[in-house]
Each structure stands twice: as structure tokens, then as C-alpha cells.
Amino acid sequence: MDFEKIRVVCVGNSTLDRVWLVDELPVGGGKFRAHDYLELGGGMAANAAVAVARLGGAASYWGRGGNDTAGHTMCDELSRYGVDIAQFRLFDGARSSVSSILVSHDGERSIVNFRGSDIPADASWLPLDDIARAQAVHGDVRWVEGARAAFAAAREHGVPTVLDGEIAEQADFHILLPMVDHAIFSESGLRAFLGDAVNIGDELSPVLGLQRARDLGCRVAAVTRGAKGTVWLDESGVHYQSAFPVAVVDTTGAGDVFHGAYAVAIAGGCNVAESMRMASAVAAMKCTRKGGRAGIPSYAEVQVFLAQNG
Ligand SMILES: Nc1ncnc2c1ncn2[C@@H]1O[C@H](COP(=O)(O)OP(=O)(O)O)[C@@H](O)[C@H]1O
Ligand SMILES: [Mg+2]
């Protein structure tokens, strides 16, 4: 199978990383020289949309930014990846989310993020009728109103939904988890959802936390654990997908890309285990190149990788 004509709508965050490559991270004030400079789009839903497009699906990104240079740079890059940005709205007077990232020769980094400002939370402008023509909806926790509206429309039309459970307020998880079919947390996102109620230290099983997520209504609750792989809980019990061993260069955006690949797999009719396996392969391959997006494979490339990696 391939994902041609499979449409996934990704709702949520887009950011711009401004990356300076320096010999040493600056200490204190002063003037410093970078030997290279990159502008790279990021953000959970935006990266997920790029993964959908790279895998051959029809990706639509629905999100918000400021009508500023960073906003236009993000739009241009998403377009170059073939993502439909008709609903990436840049608001006058608002400012986009940007990060300044300094990377030293040994890979150490210092990151300063600005989450943007004056970006309206209102989601009433989204063309929710379009959801009926999608095969999956992906949403993240950075635009709760947007994800909430899209998930509600998806439920109405029987379209499967995937949540990126990154760090967020507990109240937001309580809004979104009852509306979503597949909730895939990062480890820190799952901790944020659980708060102090359940401590899932590294040596403890996250299953109890995933059970709490399922108690709120999602059918599949999962947690990605970097090189330790992915654990998920569904009506038939606990399941595991190990991470694929690769020569890791950069794990930026691994989780975002995992979510996009998972969403397009579910949209294409794969079952949960097949989707977890493909998402793990796509995320691992992404880690072999610098940046959040450059390493995302095509569908043909991931098929070859899966054939070679059992
Ligand atoms: N070092 C790694 N080697 C192989 N796969 C990885 C590695 N890091 C991440 N992945 C894959 O990407 C997925 C998401 O990564 P993770 O670090 O859990 O999310 P996030 O980027 O949101 O913190 C993992 O479940 C795994 O499949
Ligand atoms: Mg993540």
C-alpha cells in the first residue's frame, strides 16, 4: 500500500528555529562569531504534517503564527515540503514562535524559545467541514481550541484522531483525552498529565499512567521513550515496540515525526501495531540526519529500512 490520496489534517504548533553553529557556547556577554547559520521550521503539528507529506500523504497544516518574517519563512518551508498551508493563518500584530539555538562543535546546545505573542486562541475560522474528507486528524497540546474543534468534527464524521501528548496543563489533557482515539505521550508529557498523583520514575512501568489516560476515554494510550521504544495500552492489554538501532545524529523532532507517521499509517488503514512499527522506523531514520525534517524518509525508503531491519 502507499499513502497517495490519504489526507491527514495536522492542527497545532509551528515554530521557527534560528540555529547558530559556534565553536564554543558563549559564556557571559560579548560578541561571538557563528561559522554557520540555519533557519529550520519545527513545532509538533507542523513537523507531523511534513512527515505525512514525505510519506506520500496529502498533508494539511492548520495553525497560527504572526504576520512577520518568521511566519512567512515557516509557510515557505512547509510549502516546499508539499504541505497544504491554506489554513496556516498569519495574524497582523501577532508574533510567531521562534527559538534561538546555539550549537557548539561537540553538539552541546543552548535554546531560548519565545512562544509568540498576541496569537488569538479562537478556532472558529477553521473549515471544519473539510474534516469529513480527511482520513485522520492529528492535534497537539499547544492550541487546545484548535485541536478541540478538529477532534469534535472528526468524531462527528467518524475520522480517527491522534493527540501529541507533550507537556501541557493537566486541565488541557482532561479536555482533549476524552475526544481522541489515539493519545501518544512523550515521557515528560505523560508525567505532566499525571502530575504528582503517580510517580513514574524511569525504573517503573508507565502502564499505570497510560491506564489513567484510557480511563478518560482514549482507546489507545501510548508513551514514546526515545531509544527505549514505545509502550502502548489498548483494550487487549500492554504492547511494546522497540526503537530501531540507528547511528543517531540529531533527535530533534523525533516525537513529532513519529506522530505524523503514525497518523498517516492509521489513516491508510494500518492497525495499531503496524502503525507503531512504521512510526518507529520513520522516527529512527529521521534521527540519522541533522534537523527535525531533513531525515524523514519517503515511503519507499521506509519500506526498504523495515525489510532490512526485521
Ligand atoms: N535514539 C533513538 N534511536 C532510535 N529511535 C529513536 C531515538 N530517539 C527517538 N527515537 C524514536 O522516536 C520516537 C519518539 O522519540 P521521543 O524521544 O520519545 O519523543 P520526543 O521527541 O517527543 O521527546 C521514539 O519512540 C523512537 O521510536
Ligand atoms: Mg514530542
| CATH architecture descriptor text | 3-Layer(aba) Sandwich
What gyration radius follows from the Cα positions, in whole Å?
19 Å
Helix content: 25-40%
Q: Strand arrangement, largest sheet?
A: 5-4-1-8-9-10-11-12-13
Average pLDDT score: 95
String of helices and strands: EEEHEHEEEEHEHEHHEEEHHH
Question: For the report, how would you describe the main beta sheet?
Answer: 9 strands, mixed
> Uncertain regions: pLDDT < 50 for 5+ in a row?
none
Give the overall shape.
globular
Strand content: 25-35%
- What small molecules accompany the polymer chains? adenosine-5'-diphosphate, magnesium ion
CATH first level: which class? Alpha Beta
Please give the alpha-carbon distance between the first and last residues. 18 Å
Specify the structural class.
alpha/beta
Number of helices: 9
Number of domains: 1
CATH-derived topology: UDP-N-acetylmuramoyl-L-alanine:D-glutamate ligase
Task: Give the tally of β-strands.
Answer: 13
Fourth CATH level, the homologous superfamily:
Ribokinase
Task: Please give a structural write-up.
The chain is an alpha/beta fold. It has helices at residues 44-54, 69-80, 144-157, 170-176, 187-194, 207-215, 254-267, 272-286, 299-308, and strands spanning 7-12, 15-21, 36-42, 58-66, 84-91, 98-103, 109-114, 136-140, 161-165, 182-186, 220-224, 230-234, 237-241. The strands form two sheets. The protein has a nine-stranded mixed sheet, sandwiched between helices. The mean pLDDT is 95. Bound molecules: adenosine-5'-diphosphate and magnesium ion. The site of adenosine-5'-diphosphate has 19 residues, from α7 and α8.
